[in-house]
């Protein structure tokens, strides 16, 4: 029924008047996800290229879609990026940066070796937290710039239009959702280890790689190469801050 086709809570547009869809299996463009025969009769469209349903996820529960996205399945990424309307990219990015900045602020707090509660309240009102947020933002920006430069240099035909850059940026922002795993570290404060943070970082990089691969329809090697150069530029920014004398 109609309820089964709501996907992420919004029924996808039936026709491609507002933009083309993509087959989640072969990445070919499609003009529609389903056809409405009126009186509640809906039929999922079949891809003309691979002869499979264009987007089977439109009748899946959002929890199943989320699980498949966490498993980094290309089909789930195509569904989210091409066949749904999601506008949480900026909010998600800011929220993740706030979590990261707060963790860095806690580490800076620990290094001060001051346990006076009154001093903690005073310390929270200072600019160190905002400095950490700014540093985290600059690091992520430099990481994305490194990715864009590498992809533009190696596959310029993939990023000819402004819309291509915007789509890839949205994909990268969405793929940083793994940083939400930092929330438990924020809640339980010191109950986390560097190993846990390293796993979170690796998961985010894997998600970034899958987002690049799905968005530009590339092989597995080129996205990781772009991420490698992005990390080099990000670490360069970190080294610059360290030379200035800032704790990062």
UniProtKB/TrEMBL annotation:
> What topology does the record note for this protein and the membrane?
Multi-pass membrane protein
Q: What InterPro entries does its record include?
A: Arv1
Q: Describe its function.
A: Mediator of sterol homeostasis involved in sterol uptake, trafficking and distribution into membranes.
* Subcellular location(s) of the protein: Endoplasmic reticulum membrane
Give a Gene Ontology cellular component term annotated to this protein.
cortical endoplasmic reticulum
Q: What is this protein called?
A: Protein ARV
Grouped into one coarse class, the protein's main location is endoplasmic reticulum
The UniProt record lists the keyword Lipid metabolism: yes
Per UniProt, which keywords does this protein have?
Answer: Endoplasmic reticulum, Lipid metabolism, Lipid transport, Membrane, Transmembrane, Transmembrane helix, Transport
Q: Which family does it belong to?
A: Belongs to the ARV1 family.
Keyword Transmembrane recorded: yes
Gene designation: Arv1
Q: For this entry, list what GO says about its biological process.
A: intracellular sterol transport; regulation of plasma membrane sterol distribution; sphingolipid metabolic process; sterol metabolic process
């Amino acid at each position: 029924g109609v309820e089964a086709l709501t996907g992420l809570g919004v029924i996808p547009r039936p026709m491609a008047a507002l933009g083309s869809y993509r087959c989640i299996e072969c990445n070919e463009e499609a003009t529609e996800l389903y056809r409405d025969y009126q009186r509640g009769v809906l039929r999922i469209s079949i891809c003309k290229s691979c002869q499979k349903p264009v987007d089977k996820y439109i009748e899946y529960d959002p929890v199943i879609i989320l699980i498949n996205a966490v498993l980094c399945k290309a089909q789930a990424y195509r569904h989210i990026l091409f066949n749904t309307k999601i506008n949480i990219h900026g909010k998600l990015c800011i929220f993740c940066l706030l979590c990261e900045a707060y963790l860095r602020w806690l580490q800076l707090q620990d290094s001060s070796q001051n346990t006076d509660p009154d001093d903690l309240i005073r310390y929270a009102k200072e600019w160190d937290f905002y400095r950490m947020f700014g540093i985290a933002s600059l690091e992520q920006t430099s990481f994305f710039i490194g990715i864009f430069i590498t992809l533009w240099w190696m596959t310029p035909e993939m990023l000819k239009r402004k819309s291509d850059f915007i789509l890839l940026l949205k994909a990268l922002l969405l793929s940083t959702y793994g940083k939400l795993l930092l929330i438990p570290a924020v809640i339980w404060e010191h109950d986390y280890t560097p190993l846990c943070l390293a796993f979170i970082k690796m998961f985010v990089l894997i998600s970034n790689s899958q987002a690049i691969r799905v968005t530009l329809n590339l092989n597995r090697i080129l996205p990781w190469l772009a991420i490698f150069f992005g990390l080099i530029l990000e670490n360069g920014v970190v080294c610059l801050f360290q030379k200035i004398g800032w704790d990062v």
